């Protein structure tokens, strides 16, 4: 296989497709970060994806560090997943009635994550939205607490001080509950209280004041959507204290689930959430989300309980097949998480050395196969919250991103995102990436 990077100025096909797309789709894309708005340039329209590589409409190959924003932990078009989907396809694409694969995936997910019951949805957004409704229905309380710069999908009540593509819109003070999007009524946003990630005292104070009204505290156990932020043990302890106040603790593992370990960040960090949300890897690249947890809480979901939640395509047989093949492959390969960690920590070390050599200030956060180089001079590993992440030089990052892209490396097109390494990335891709990164850092001095 070809592993060398390719220089390209060939974007004619992507430009033509982008022009057509803009005429018929807002901004030309079906999800905002894909438009390259914060880094500039033409978004590449992708024709195909195999292993660690993407090929765009102009035929240029890239080493991919987005992995469809997380799902492709095995690499693109993995044979086990492709064959499972092809096999399922022979028997029909949607039944609107229960089938065996849903039972199998639910059994596998509950076993791997130590949860009692799980309900499948078709996206991570639906999972978090439904988990909050469930928490409100179970506790009879109205308020939820989230953390600034955490992103939990685009349900109205969660578009408050949200991260990811909204990171550039954040300007409210803590507790202020400013909507991050037009169309979210202030009255609705007021039901979402905002605290600061990795600030146990702020959470304790908020809960002391309003705790009796709080149905749930939802959080990213390792943040990917403000760039990578790693929680402190003190913050995790404060999160667990809310359970003593009758609020449910909801771990949003849409990004970290099955990525940081077979039991996600929950397993890695010793968390004890009441409910957990999944997405991305659980569907192996097809549209799946899920929420699950304590049986007494989950039994409040319809048709067993009074909290309504449904989906025409929920438990879709093709999507279940892709999820099953992905999780089974992960479980069967005992060394996989070690190899992902090894690749990513070598990438982190390489970036630190190369940036220092070029006199470019970066602060790298890395855990497992997630990594963000914040373009700022703070010591490595010390960026801990939204405010500090936001001090990054987004213009410098944007130029570095373009330097990588022009050398065949497809990095996340925003400073405030994690990259995702897959099991298809090998030493050859690592060497090629670091070679391109060296040149991209050098570009910044010109
Ligand atoms: N929660 C987290 C932590 C996410 O990272 C995302 C998406 O990136 C979501 C929820 C929403 O998932 P989806 O895009 O599948 O609706």
UniProtKB/TrEMBL annotation:
**Gene Ontology CC terms:** cytoplasm
Subcellular location per the Swiss-Prot or TrEMBL entry: Cytoplasm
Q: How does it assemble?
A: Homodimer.
Q: What class of enzyme is it?
A: isomerase
Q: Give TM regions.
A: none
What keywords tag this UniProt record? Aminotransferase, Cytoplasm, Isomerase, Porphyrin biosynthesis, Pyridoxal phosphate, Transferase
Q: Which reaction does it catalyse?
A: (S)-4-amino-5-oxopentanoate = 5-aminolevulinate
Q: Which GO terms describe its biological process?
A: protoporphyrinogen IX biosynthetic process
What Gene Ontology terms describe what this protein does at the molecular function level? Answer: glutamate-1-semialdehyde 2,1-aminomutase activity; pyridoxal phosphate binding; transaminase activity
Tell me yes or no: is DNA repair among this UniProt entry's keywords: no
NCBIfam families of this UniProt entry? Answer: hemL, PRK00062.1
What protein is this chain from?
Glutamate-1-semialdehyde 2,1-aminomutase
Q: Which cofactor does it need?
A: pyridoxal 5'-phosphate
Q: Which domain of life is it from?
A: Bacteria
Q: Which family is this sequence assigned to?
A: Belongs to the class-III pyridoxal-phosphate-dependent aminotransferase family. HemL subfamily.
Per the record, residues carrying N6-(pyridoxal phosphate)lysine are 280
Which pathway is this protein engaged in?
Answer: Porphyrin-containing compound metabolism; protoporphyrin-IX biosynthesis; 5-aminolevulinate from L-glutamyl-tRNA(Glu): step 2/2
Q: Which organism is it from?
A: Deinococcus marmoris
Signal sequence region:
none
Enzyme nomenclature, EC number:
5.4.3.8
Q: In the UniProt record, does the keyword Isomerase occur?
A: yes
């Amino acid at each position: 296989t070809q592993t060398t990077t390719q220089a390209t100025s060939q974007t004619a096909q992507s430009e033509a497709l982008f022009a057509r797309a803009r005429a018929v789709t807002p901004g030309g894309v079906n999800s905002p970060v894909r438009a390259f708005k914060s880094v500039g340039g033409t978004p590449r329209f992708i024709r195909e994806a195999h292993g660690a590589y993407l090929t765009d409409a102009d035929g240029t190959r890239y080493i991919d560090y987005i992995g469809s924003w997380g799902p492709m932990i095995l690499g693109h078009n993995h044979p086990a997943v492709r064959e499972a989907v092809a096999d399922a396809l022979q028997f029909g694409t949607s039944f609107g009635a229960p089938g065996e694969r849903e039972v199998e995936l639910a059994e596998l997910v509950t076993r791997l994550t130590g949860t009692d019951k799980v309900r499948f949805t078709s996206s991570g957004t639906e999972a978090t939205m439904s988990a909050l409704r469930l928490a409100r229905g179970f506790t009879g309380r109205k308020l939820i607490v989230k953390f600034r710069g955490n992103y939990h999908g685009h349900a109205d009540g969660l578009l408050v001080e949200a991260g990811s593509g909204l990171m550039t819109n954040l300007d409210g003070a803590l507790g202020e509950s400013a909507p991050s999007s037009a169309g979210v009524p202030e009255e609705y946003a007021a039901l979402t209280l905002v605290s600061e990630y990795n600030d146990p005292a702020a959470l304790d104070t908020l809960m002391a004041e309003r705790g009796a009204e709080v149905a749930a505290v939802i959080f990213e156990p390792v943040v990917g959507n403000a760039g990578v932020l790693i929680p402190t043990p003190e913050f995790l302890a404060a999160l667990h204290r809310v359970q003593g106040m009758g609020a449910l603790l909801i771990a949003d593992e849409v990004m970290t689930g099955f990525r940081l370990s077979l039991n996600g960040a929950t397993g890695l960090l010793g968390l004890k959430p009441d409910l957990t949300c999944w997405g991305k890897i659980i569907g192996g690249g097809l549209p799946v989300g899920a929420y699950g947890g304590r049986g007494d809480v989950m039994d409040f979901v319809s048709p067993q309980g009074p909290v309504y939640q449904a989906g025409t395509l929920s438990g879709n047989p093709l999507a279940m097949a892709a999820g099953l093949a992905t999780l089974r492959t992960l479980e069967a390969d005992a060394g996989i998480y070690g190899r992902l960690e090894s690749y990513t920590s070598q990438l982190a070390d390489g970036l630190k050395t190369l940036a220092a050599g070029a006199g470019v200030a970066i602060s790298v956060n890395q855990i497992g196969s997630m990594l963000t180089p914040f373009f700022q001079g703070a010591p490595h590993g010390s960026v801990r919250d939204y405010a500090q992440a936001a001090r990054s030089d987004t213009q410098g990052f944007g130029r570095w991103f373009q330097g990588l892209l022009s050398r065949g490396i497809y990095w996340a097109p925003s400073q405030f995102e994690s990259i995702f390494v897959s099991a298809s990335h090998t030493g050859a891709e690592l060497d090629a990436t670091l070679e391109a990164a060296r040149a991209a850092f050098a570009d910044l001095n010109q």
